């Protein structure tokens, strides 16, 4: 047995801009053990729920994460609406679905770019982010914000999308899908990408399930769990089948995300076609009194917002479980047996969002 | 063939030219809804204080007596809640982002709105009032 050494990875690392620290125990170049630690970016956003009114906290909720911000706001609003027994108008549910799927597109394209950069394919990184830009333009045209949308509110949404803009989005979806399929083809079929990713960071179906992994990390191992199946927002009307891969390696997790791009485009197309007429919000009266576990499917997996109100305009407690926190134990399981040079790619393959994790 | 998957995209990009623009020579892309910054019109503000109450980050402060309206640009998140809530249209959302600053300065406006005088009472009413 060769001598063991410990190599620190993060919290500042060139491939991973987010502050997670891993102590990698190495034997030569081989990882034999990993000790993760977080705690570099805690902002105390859960405590803030006691200082902001329940309608104002939406703005805080969507700032938990800069990438899946809309879905955080959606999950929070759904929780409050359930506690206060508010029925959201159909049009608002469809608009929420469109923005959620746009968030997923933009998050997955961002991740695909970072992943390509992580494995050394810079041209592909640039191309992914070029496509992502067109999604951000749609966000800016429909909500006024490129990253922080600020359109979700308790009782509905704050902005409508006009029929003209919906028609324009529908028209451009075809060419966007074609470009995404070109991009996805490189990730799925290119021999160099396959050679780099296949058989790397494998986690079995049972391990992924037992360790409580979420999102593409879980679905890449063959477990068909996607919270959109439960039909929140308009997913129940649109019908939805989760994307599953069985290999459980980095390539499978990448393939899940690539194929989720196509399913998101399909969902947006159907939501635009079936968009109902009517109001976009209802007036909120009273204050939340009760508790609820609200769940939604983020690009990285399932997010849980636990909310408890006592009949005043400030909530008593909010607790947020983000998907990256659930995926860190799975990451610790994936890393042993990998080469040191493969660690950045494996860490990126769970799509870590540490700002989400620590809030 | 899995070796030249990227080639088509590469050739297309070579023909198409750059995807980025030469900012700031070419201005950044905005849309009519872009939330850049909140603009205040002191001539129409009636000091109701709704904007200050609605602001989720306590960036707006209003003093009725001194006729002062203040906004802390470093606190403002440009959510647009104040603009939606203003009943007199004194607040508007402009497209331009504020340039970065190094000093913390609170922007101060003096409200110039003057309450219009009530129309003079009719002589008959005046006479009735005087009689009582």
Short description, anyone?
The complex is a heterodimer of chains A (359) and B (132). Chain A is α+β, with helices and mostly antiparallel strands and 359 residues long. Chain A has helices spanning 57-61, 69-84, 90-118, 122-143, 163-189, 191-197, 205-210, 216-219, 235-238, 250-273, 323-334, 343-349, 354-358; strands spanning 4-9, 21-27, 30-37, 152-153, 156-157, 289-298, 301-310, 315-321.
Please provide a written account of the structure.
The complex is a heterodimer of chains A (359) and B (132). Chain A has a 3-stranded antiparallel β-sheet with strand order 1-2-3, with no helix packed on it. A 3-stranded antiparallel β-sheet of chain A has the order 6-7-8. A two-stranded antiparallel sheet of chain A has the order 4-5. By secondary structure, chain A is an alpha+beta fold. The radius of gyration of chain A is 20 Å and the shape is globular. With 132 residues, chain B is of the alpha+beta class. Chain B has 4 helices and 5 strands, in the order H-E-H-E-E-H-E-E-H. In chain B, a hairpin with a 4-residue loop joins strand 2 and strand 3. Chain B starts with 6 loop residues before the first helix and ends with a helix. The mean pLDDT of chain B is 82. At the A-B interface, helix 4, helix 5 and helix 6 of A face helix 1 of B.
Please tally the β strands of chain B and state the result: 5
Q: Please state the second-level CATH architecture of one domain in chain B.
A: 2-Layer Sandwich
Gross morphology of chain A is: globular
Spell out the helices and strands of chain B N to C.
HEHEEHEEH
- Strand and helix order of chain A: EEEHHHHEEHHHHHHEEEHHH
Note poorly predicted spans of chain B: none
* CATH top level assignment of chain A: Mainly Alpha
Which percent range fits the helix content of chain B? 10-25%
Radius of gyration of chain A: 20 Å
Oligomer: heterodimer
- What is the CA–CA distance across the termini of chain A? 41 Å
Q: Per CATH, what is the topology of chain A?
A: Cytochrome-c3 Hydrogenase, chain B
Low-confidence stretches of chain A: none
Strand order of the largest sheet of chain A: 1-2-3
Our count of domains of chain A comes out at 1
Q: Between the first and last Cα atoms of chain B, what is the distance in angstroms?
A: 102 Å
- DSSP strand count of chain A: 8
């Amino acid at each position: 047995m060769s001598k063991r050494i410990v190599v620190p990875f993060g919290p500042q690392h060139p491939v991973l801009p987010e502050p997670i620290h891993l102590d990698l125990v190495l034997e030569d170049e081989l990882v034999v053990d990993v000790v993760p630690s977080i705690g570099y970016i805690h902002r105390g956003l859960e405590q803030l729920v006691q200082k902001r009114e329940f309608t104002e906290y939406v703005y805080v909720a969507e700032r938990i994460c800069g990438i899946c911000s809309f879905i955080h706001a959606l999950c929070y609003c759904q929780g409050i609406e359930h506690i206060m027994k508010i029925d959201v108008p159909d049009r608002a549910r469809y608009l929420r679905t469109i923005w959620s799927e746009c968030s997923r597109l933009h998050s997955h394209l961002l991740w695909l770019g970072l992943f390509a950069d992580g494995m050394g394919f810079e041209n592909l990184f640039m191309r992914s982010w070029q496509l992502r830009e067109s999604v951000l333009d749609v966000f800016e045209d429909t909500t006024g914000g490129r990253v922080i949308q600020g359109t979700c509110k308790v009782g509905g949404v704050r902005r409508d999308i006009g029929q003209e803009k919906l028609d324009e989005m529908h028209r451009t979806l075809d060419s966007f899908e074609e470009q995404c399929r070109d991009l996805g083809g490189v990730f799925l079929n290119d021999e160099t990408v396959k050679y780099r990713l296949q058989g790397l960071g494998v986690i079995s179906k049972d391990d992924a399930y037992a360790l409580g992994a979420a999102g593409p990390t879980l679905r890449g191992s063959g477990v068909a769990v996607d919270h959109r199946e439960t039909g929140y927002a308009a997913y129940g009307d649109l019908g939805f089948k989760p994307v599953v891969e069985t290999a459980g390696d980095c390539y499978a997790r990448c393939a899940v995300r690539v194929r989720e791009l196509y399913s998101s485009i399909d969902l947006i197309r159907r939501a635009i076609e079936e968009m109902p007429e009517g109001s976009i919000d209802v007036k909120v009266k009273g204050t939340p009194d009760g508790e609820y576990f609200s769940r939604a499917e983020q690009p990285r997996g399932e997010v849980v917002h636990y909310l408890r109100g006592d009949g005043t305009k400030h909530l008593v407690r909010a607790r947020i479980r983000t998907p990256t926190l659930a995926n860190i134990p799975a990451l610790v399981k994936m890393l042993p047996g990998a080469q040191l040079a493969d660690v950045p790619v494996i860490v990126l393959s769970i799509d870590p969002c540490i700002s989400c994790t620590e809030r | 063939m899995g070796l030249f998957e990227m080639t088509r995209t590469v050739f297309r990009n070579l023909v198409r030219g750059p995807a980025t623009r030469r900012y700031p020579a070419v201005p950044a892309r905005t849309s009519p809804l872009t939330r850049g910054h909140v603009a205040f019109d002191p001539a129409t503000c009636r000091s109701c204080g709704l904007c200050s109450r609605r602001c989720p980050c306590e960036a707006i402060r209003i003093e009725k007596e001194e006729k002062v309206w203040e906004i802390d640009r470093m606190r403002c998140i440009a959510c647009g809640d104040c603009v939606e809530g203003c009943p007199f249209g004194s607040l508007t959302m402009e497209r331009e982002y504020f340039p970065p600053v190094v000093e913390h300065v609170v922007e101060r406006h003096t409200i110039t709105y003057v309450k219009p005088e009530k129309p003079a009472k009719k002589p008959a009413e005046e006479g009735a009032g005087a009689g009582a």
